[in-house]
Amino acid sequence: xxxxxxxxxxxxxxxxxxxxxxxxxxxxxxxxxxxxxxxxxxxxxxxxxxxxxxxxxxxxxxxxxxxxxxxxxxxxxxxxxxxxxxxxxxxxxxxxxxxxxxxxxxxxxxxxxxxxxxxxxxxxxxxxxxxxxxxxxxxxx
Length: 141
Ligand SMILES: Cc1cc2nc3c(=O)[nH]c(=O)nc-3n(C[C@H](O)[C@H](O)[C@H](O)COP(=O)(O)O)c2cc1C
Fold this sequence. Notes:
By secondary structure, the protein is α+β, with helices and mostly antiparallel strands. About 35% of the residues lie in helices and about 30% in strands. The protein has four helices and six strands. It has a six-stranded mixed beta sheet, sandwiched between helices. It starts with a strand and ends with a strand. Bound molecules: flavin mononucleotide. The site of flavin mononucleotide has 15 residues, from α1, β3 and α2.
């Protein structure tokens, strides 16, 4: 029983590049043991993350992440049962921000900023798909 979950949140001001690296390091250390894969994007103070894996593992991890004091306004965007993973290659991949160019953002939203709070979950998912297709997700599992 696999599920895919996507949420968006707002980082607290103290979150900087080092904190992001620490979150990614922790994710890569923890996720393989529970069979969770996914991708994390951080842009303009906004987190956008996809988690895939067994339903219990994903639900448990999401609840833990949602109560993390490094972000607020955690909003569930997509929760779906899936037959197969899309982001199986990453225990927690990272979006290469230099690939998150204005044209790609404009393709899916009204303005060239990452704002998952104002577009549908499916639009944010399409953006992730495109980032993956253009090899813009870095970080080996
Ligand atoms: C935006 C964001 C994404 C996170 N993603 C993950 C994740 O994918 N896996 C994970 O184990 N922890 C993730 N964390 C960290 C968890 O909230 C929590 O601090 C961590 O899982 C605790 O692990 P520990 O009990 O091994 O110290 C994330 C935190 C934030 C703020």
